[in-house]
Amino acid sequence: MNLWLLLTVNSITLGGLLFLLSAGFSLIFGLMRIPNLTHGSFFMLGAYFGASLVAWFGVDFWLAAAIAALLVAALGGVLERFVLRRLAGQEQAQVLVTLGVSFMIADLCLMEWSGDPMTVEAPAALQGAAHFLGLTFPAYRLAIILVALAIAALLWALIDRTRLGAMIRAGVDDPQMARICGIRISYLFTLVFCLGAGLAGFAGMMGSPILSVYPGLDADMLPLALVVVILGGTGSLLGSLLGSFVVGFLYNFGQALLPELAYFVLFLPMVIILVIRPQGLFGRRAP
Amino acid sequence: MRRIALALALAVLLAVPLWAGGSFYVNIVSQILIAAIFALGLDVLVGYAGLISLGHAGLFGVAAYGVAVMLGAGFGHLAAIAAALALCVATTALFAVLALRTTGIGFIMITLALGQLLWGLAYRWIDLTQGDNGISAASRPAPLGLSLASADGFYYATLAVFLAVLLALAVLAASPFGASLKGTRDQPRRMTALGFDVWTIRFLAFLLSGLCSGIAGVLFFYYNEFISPQALALSASAEALLMVIAGGSGTLLGPIAGAALVVAMKSVASAYIARWNFTLGAIFVLIVLFMPEGLVPGSRRLARWVWAARKGRRNPAAAESGG
Question: Which terminus of chain B faces fewer neighbouring Cβ atoms within 10 Å, N or C?
Answer without folding.
Answer: N
